[in-house]
Specification:
Layout: E1 2-3, H1 6-14, E2 19-25, E3 37-44, E4 47-52, E5 67-69, E6 71-73, H2 76-81, E7 85-87, E8 90-91, H3 103-111, H4 124-137, H5 145-165, E9 167-168, H6 171-178, E10 186-187, E11 190-191, E12 195-196, E13 205-208, E14 211-212, E15 227-237, H7 240-249, H8 257-266, H9 273-288, H10 300-319, E16 322-323, E17 329-330, H11 337-362, E18 369-371, E19 374-379, H12 384-394, E20 399-406
Parallel strand pairs: 1-4, 2-6, 5-7, 6-8
Antiparallel strand pairs: 2-3, 3-4, 9-11, 10-11, 12-13, 13-14, 15-19, 15-20, 16-17, 18-19
Helix pairs in contact: 5-11, 7-11, 8-9, 10-11
């Protein structure tokens, strides 16, 4: 194994030669945007190499301008957060859990849990030894272009861009609510979200520092903590899963899908407010439930939904996994026809959102928060018209807009 400096490392990493690239962050607790690369291990057909960045065992080097091409690596999103360009690569965390730290790391993490940048204390050779063992244990799964583009290119890029924005926060209110021990989560009056792209459902979660940003409490006023001087624009998709499924089935829905369906449920031209609310419940019950109501299952829409459910279930039983539109394989625990269909809807939601988010970000409009069927943007007053026009052009399905100065919409 050979130590190489930054110039040789750049040449190897940026080459089109296939390679394994594994790395250690300086501090295992901190967000990648508040972190540094400690050291790196690279394996190619020509040999094994390692280099150091912030680790004191070797002279400090910068990651500026670093480009990784055609690699099997871990957590591409975090590499992008460090400012490293990653192209045509595969994130092995989509296939298996990769534990890159050894027993000595764990010992230090427990005994010196308050020490910053603990990984720079562990000798670099222990890191490289662990990374080498990980590299030798990896199982390589063939990856087709469509799957690679969505899950190993677009998705890490999109969520890296969102994380980089951060969420504005009132420091005093944040620490009063979450505790003074959370002070390290704040940087320049912002906190940073961290999306986990490797969930069993394929639907990204969003937790960092013990705070679940995908499920902020809507009832206790704590969402007022997150805000600042700029305008918050919240986008909520209307009847999102219903529109996604209907597009898949080639059925065109009117903007107010619940009213349209309610008129069929109740055989009326005009619905009362009570009937409209009941129509929404009927739709969701029959879309997600285990059995369709007698007066619903004969409607053309739900006939096609039932047929799609049967086809997905047949495919799952045959293959043993759910194959999404972008060829992601999802294994459903305790699988049933209904559960497989629900997982499929979630994957359809995620893949559709990533495409929309990529296009929006390409227009220099990046959300600060994403939660399944909603997005939050932070803008200046003079950006309102551009924001409205961009969203109208890029978002596929009907949505409702709310504005404010914090997340309490």
């Amino acid at each position: 194994m050979q130590y190489i400096d930054n110039s040789i490392l750049q040449t190897i990493l940026s080459s089109d030669q296939p390679k394994i690239v594994l790395y250690i962050m300086s501090d295992h607790r901190h967000h990648s945007l508040q972190n540094e690369l400690s050291c790196i291990y690279v394996k190619t057909s020509d040999g094994e190499f390692y280099s150091s960045f912030s680790h004191p065992d070797y002279p400090k080097q910068s990651t500026q301008g670093l480009v990784i091409n055609n690699a099997y690596t871990t957590n591409i999103k975090d590499l992008m957060n460090l400012g490293i360009e990653v192209n045509d690569s595969v994130d092995v965390l989509y296939f298996e859990d990769v534990v890159s730290s050894g027993l000595l790391n764990k010992f230090y993490e427990i005994k010196l849990d308050k020490v910053r940048n603990i990984n720079n204390i562990v000798p670099i050779f222990k890191h490289i030894e662990n990374l080498r063992n990980v590299a030798n244990s990896l199982k390589f799964i063939p990856v087709d272009t469509r799957y690679k583009t969505m899950y190993h290119n677009l998705m890490p890029y999109v969520f890296s861009q969102i994380e980089r924005r951060g969420v504005p926060v009132n420091n005093e209110l944040f620490l009063d609510y979450y505790g003074q021990d959370k002070i390290d989560l704040i940087r320049d009056n912002r906190v940073y979200t961290s999306y986990n792209l490797y969930t069993t459902t394929g639907r990204p979660s969003n937790t960092h520092g013990g705070i679940n940003y995908a499920a902020l409490n809507k009832a206790d006023g704590s969402r007022r903590i997150f805000g600042g001087d700029k305008v918050m624009v919240n986008i909520d998709f209307n009847s999102y899963h219903l529109f996604l499924i209907c597009e898949k089935l080639g059925i065109e829905l009117p903007t107010n899908a619940h009213e349209w369906l309610g008129k069929m449920y109740f055989n009326k031209d005009v619905l009362s407010e009570v009937e409209y609310d009941e129509a929404k419940k009927i739709t969701f019950r029959n879309l997600y439930g285990y059995q369709m109501d007698e007066n619903v299952k004969n409607l053309e829409l739900f006939k096609k939904i039932a047929e799609l459910q049967e086809n997905l279930w047949t495919q799952y039983q045959s293959a043993g996994y759910l194959l999404t539109d972008y060829n992601n394989r999802i294994v459903v625990e305790n699988a049933s026809k209904n559960k497989v269909f629900n997982y499929y809807i979630q994957s359809l939601e995620t893949e559709t959102n990533v495409k929309q988010l990529y296009n929006i970000i390409d227009k220099n409009l990046t959300p600060i928060l994403y939660t399944y069927d909603s997005m939050v943007f932070e803008i200046e007053y003079n950006e309102a018209e551009y924001t409205r026009n961009t969203l109208k052009e890029q978002l596929i399905f009907p949505y409702t807009t709310k504005i404010g100065h914090n997340l309490e919409f």
